[in-house]
């Protein structure tokens, strides 16, 4: 298994001819787009997925690899329970190794406030049949033998999984192709094709595809594309840095996080490390427009982000990125095939230091790779998964807020059902498109 996220240097795998027509066109080859394509194809729909760069080239291969029920939003948790069931089913059905291991995930309690929040989650977990439990300080010490610090306790969910993102999503994409979906990499969608006030298809750099329905699942790029057509969502993106260590002695088989460090065992014997609660936010046009909506979450945790005045050239919310472009000329999506931001070097060094400090018996820990990804975030930290009422035929699955990898199979199934007129099987009101403009009170998701 590769230990590097997918990038523009990754060879193109899906390069078929552009069909004239599809039942559904999907914009974006991350886990949400791939899983929606998979389930639509299984329902017999003709589906075409267009990815400007590489399948899972952005956040879907750059995340922590947690398949997490622990600490989920109340509306997300039933959907995540379904995803937790779907992951092993998918691995069996497609006969592919997704790097899936049911090794449990743990939030470590540093303060009394942490422990109180963990206790608050337990009734929700029990109501959804999730086996989360509170560990004592002694139980945590036994779980993390040799750790240099003690914890007050922890919130632990034994049934949670870990998986290898850069392996899992491309293999799920191949499974979608085997089911009949058409996937095309290195093919940017420049915009939507509209007729009589509704969706008629998409315009790509390789030509037009007629389609009665379109799903925008473009991650950090979704807002830019939608705004081009007058569809506005309060989405921003934040940069997260990740480090992959070289193989080391096992200190914990699953994934865990405290206030400083998140770590997850990988199949190759190393650990994936990330700074818990630290993100970089590049201030751009969308960031400024969304500031009133984001004031509450920003004030709730003002120092967990590092604010920067401008994104690098070509980023979706960079000051120089065009907001208006012709369908007959290259778009911003072709200019940046894979959004591959540089990791925060200070945090890279600190992650290795923090990991070695927490587990001193490991001695010096080597770095195999470091990378960063842009996480698409909504103000309440839950996604939009809904149709756009003002533009019939248009659907949005974006703003996964760092939760998308684990929950992706279930949201893909839900979108496929909703787009074909079936019941989603869950209450989707929390994820509706219009919740930021219909006067509803902003209900924040959990901080975990």
Strand content: 15-25%
**Assembly type of the shown chains?**
single chain
Structural class of the secondary elements?
alpha/beta
CATH superfamily: FAD/NAD(P)-binding domain
Total separate domains: 1
N-C termini distance: 29 Å
Tell me roughly what share of residues is in helical segments. 25-40%
Short description:
By secondary structure, this protein is α/β, with parallel strands linked by helices.
Features:
single chain; 448 residues; alpha/beta; FAD/NAD(P)-binding domain; eight-stranded mixed sheet; 12 helices; 20 strands
Description:
The structure is a single chain. This protein is α/β, with parallel strands linked by helices. The protein has one domain (21-436): FAD/NAD(P)-binding domain (3-Layer(bba) Sandwich). It is built from twelve helices and 20 strands. α1 (31-42) packs parallel to α6, α1 runs parallel beside α12 (404-419) and α3 (77-94) packs across α12. The longest helix has 18 residues, at 77-94. It is globular and about 65 Å long. The model has no long low-confidence stretch (mean pLDDT 95).
Task: Describe how the helices and strands are arranged.
Layout: E1 21-27, H1 31-42, E2 47-50, H2 59-62, E3 66-67, H3 77-94, E4 105-109, H4 112-127, E5 133-136, H5 137-143, E6 153-157, E7 161-162, H6 165-178, E8 182-184, E9 189-195, E10 198-204, E11 207-216, H7 222-227, E12 236-245, E13 255-257, E14 261-265, E15 271-275, E16 279-282, H8 285-289, H9 291-300, E17 305-308, H10 332-335, H11 345-358, E18 367-377, E19 384-387, E20 394-398, H12 404-419
Parallel strand pairs: 1-2, 1-11, 2-8, 4-13, 11-20, 16-17
Antiparallel strand pairs: 3-7, 4-6, 5-6, 9-10, 10-11, 12-15, 12-18, 13-14, 14-15, 19-20
Helix pairs in contact: 1-6, 1-12, 3-12
